[in-house]
Fold each of these.
Amino acid sequence: MELRWHQYKYYPYELDLAVREVQAILSPRSFTETKHGIKLEGPFNEDAAERLVYFASLCGEDRVVPTMQAELERVNGNGQNRQSTRYSAHGIHEYKGKFNPQIARAILNILNIPVGGRVLDPFCGSGTSLLECAHLGMKAVGADINPLAVFIANAKLSALTMPAAQLQKALATALKKQKNGSLLRYGISDARYKYLSCWFDQDILMEIDRLRLALSKTEPVASRPLLVIASNLLRDYSLQDPHDLRIRRRKTPLPAQPFIAAFEEAVFQFIARVGDAQDVIKTRSPELAGKALLLDSCTMRLGHDGLGKSKFDCAITSPPYATALPYIDTQRLSLVWLGLLQPSEILTLEARLVGSREVRGESKKVLLTALMENRAGLPKNQSDYCRTLQAALSEKDGFRRQAVPLLLYRYFAGMAEAFRSIRRCVKDNAPFALIVGYNHTILGGKRFDIETPQHLAELAEQNGWIHDETITLQTYQRYGYHMNNAVNAEALVIVKAA
Ligand SMILES: C[S@@+](CC[C@H](N)C(=O)[O-])C[C@H]1O[C@@H](n2cnc3c(N)ncnc32)[C@H](O)[C@@H]1O
C-alpha cells in the first residue's frame, strides 16, 4: 500500500508531521519513500488512513481511496497546487493568531485521539481546532475570554450541522426584512451608535444596522453564522484602514460594491463550502458539534460554567503570544456592532487577556514589585529572564519597551495559572499540545530572542505537567520559496498530565 502526497509544496515540518501521523495512527511495520509518497509494510489499520491530513490518498493494486482531507480541500480549495485553509466553515471570519487547520488535525492524529474522544481547547479563539474535531467525530469544548471568539466558533460549529436550506431561508427572510425595515432611531446617549458613527458613513451604518436588526428577528441558530459573515465585512466598509493591524483612518476609497450585495455573495459562497464539507464528512449530528464557552482559562473549573463534570482526554491550543500586538484592535467594530460589548468595556477586556499589552497607572508599580520579588512564584529561569530584561532597559527605550519585562512576567504568571487550571480539567497522562510562537525584543539597543516554547514547557513542568517533546515548525515563503530562508517561527510543545 502506498500513501500519496498532496500536490502542494510542503514545509519541512509538514513532512515531519506526516511521518508522525502515519506512525501514530497506522503503526505500520515499516515504510519507505517512493516517488509520490511513502510505501507501507503491513499489517496496519487501513481504515484509519482516511483521517490522515498530509496525504491525499491510499493506493493499493486495485483501488485508490482519497483521504477526507483531500476531499475537503478539493471541493473547497484553491486548486490542487495550493494548500487550502478556508475549507468547510474555516473561512467564515478573520481572527488574529488563527490555527492552520491542517496542524490542528495533524496534532489530533499524532496524539491518536479516537473518534468520540473529548478534547479541550482552552484558548480556542475562532474555533479552528473545534471544527477539526467536529470533522473527525470528536467532541470538543473550547474556552475563550473574548466574546467575539466564542460567537465565531459557535457559528462555525452550528453551520456544520445545519442543512443548507435552513441558512438559505434565514438569509431570504432577513434580506426581505432588511429591505422593508424602517430607519433605526437611536437615543442621543446610545454609546454604541456614537461609537459606530465615528467609524462608518451614515448611510452604510443605517444599512448594516437594519441588517443586524433583521437578523436578530430571524431564527437564532441560523442567524448566528449570517451575523458572523456580515461582521467579517465590517472593516472593509468602515472608515478604518482594513489592512492595518492598528486602528488608523483609511486612505483608500470604500468598496464600489454595496454592502448588502457583498454580504449576499459571501453567504452564498459560505453555504456552498459548508454544504460540500457536509457531503464529505457525512455527519450532521449536532451532538458531535462541540461548543465554545465564554470562560477565563486561568480560573475555569470542571462542573462550572457549562464545562461538564467529566475530565477531558486531551487538550490542544495555540495560546496567546507573549506581548503581541493588541488582539482586540481589529475586532472592536465587530464586538460593538454585534452588541457583544459596550465601547467602554473594550479596554477592560483587553486588560484581562493573557499576553495583553495593556498596563496603566499604578499597576506598573505593582507589576515591577511582582517581578523583582517573583510574587507569582515562577521557576527560577523565567523569573531570572524577566529580571535580565528589566536590567537591560535604558532610558532611551520608549514607554512601550519599558513595559516589556513587566508584560512578559505577567504573561508567564498568567500561563502558569492556565497550566494549573487546565491540568485539573484533564485525565491523568492526558497529552496537551501547544503551538507556540517565538518572539524577540530589543532593549537597551540589544536584541533578546524570547524562547517562548521552552519557557512554556518549563512553566508547564512546574504546574502539573511533564514535558514530552518540542517539535520545531520551520516555515518560509511557501510559494516561490527558498529553503535557506527557513525560520523557526513556531514550535509544537507536547506535555503530559503528571
Ligand atoms: C492565538 S489565539 C487562539 C486562536 C485560535 N487557535 C484560532 O484558531 O482562532 C489566543 C486566544 O486566547 C484568548 N485568551 C487570552 N486570554 C485568555 C484567558 N485568560 N482565558 C481564555 N482565553 C484567553 C484570546 O482571546 C485569543 O482568542
Amino acid sequence: MLQVTELKKVFKSGDTKVLAVDDISFSVPDGQFASIIGRSGSGKSTLLSLLGALDKPTSGHIMVGDKDITKLRDHALISYRGSKIGFIFQSYNLVPNLTALENVMLPMEFAKVPKKKRQERAKKLLDQVGLKDDKQKRKPGRLSGGEQQRVAIARALANKPQLILADEPTGNLDSQTGKMIFDLLQDLSRTEHTTIITVTHDVSIAGKTDVVFKLQDGKLIKDK
Ligand SMILES: Nc1ncnc2c1ncn2[C@@H]1O[C@H](COP(=O)(O)OP(=O)(O)O)[C@@H](O)[C@H]1O
Ligand SMILES: [Mg+2]
C-alpha cells in the first residue's frame, strides 16, 4: 500500500512561492494501476518525483509499505530508488552508447546481480515487452520511439520494483503506439502485481486505469 498524507511541496524563488503540491492525501493499494491527470503546471511531475524520492517534500508523509520514504537519508534513499522503484519517462532516458540489452542490465549491475543472471533476466524482460532478438543488440539511436519505450519499461522492471512511476510515458508516441505501450503497462500491473502510477494528458488512457487522481493548482480535486 502506498499512502500519501498531507503532502506539500513549496518552491521559493525570491519573494514568490509556488505551491506545486498543496496538501495532498490519497492511497493506492498494491497492484493497482493509477493515473494522475491535470493541466500543464498542475503539479503532476512534482508529485511523481516526491513519490520516487527524487525530491523532498516541504511537509507531509509518504508511506510505502511500512516505510516513510520522506525520512530516508543518503544510502537508504539511494537504495530505495534503485531497488523499490522503476521510473519511466516521456523521453525514455536510455543510455545512448549502450545496447538495449545493456541498458536493461544496468540497474541490476548497481544492485550487484552477477553478470550471467543480469544477461538472462534482461533478455527475458526484453522478450516480454516484445523487443525482438536482433533489436536487443541495437543502441537506442537505431530503435523507434515505441521500441525505446519498451526498453525503458524492461529497464524499469529489472530489479522487480514494488512501484513503477511513469511520467507521460506515451507523450512522444503516436496514438496507436501509445496504446500498445499503455496495454503493456496494464498487463504488467496484472501479471506482476506491480503498483503503477502514470501521469498522462490522455483522458482516454486515464479512463482505463483502476483509479484517476486529478490535480488542479497543486490540489487533488477528485478521484474516481
Ligand atoms: N524546480 C522548480 N522550481 C520552481 N518551480 C517549479 C519547479 N518545478 C516545478 N515548479 C513549478 O511547480 C508547478 C508544478 O509544476 P509541475 O509539477 O512540473 O507540473 P506538471 O507536471 O503538472 O506540468 C508549476 O507552477 C511549476 O512552474
Ligand atoms: Mg510534467
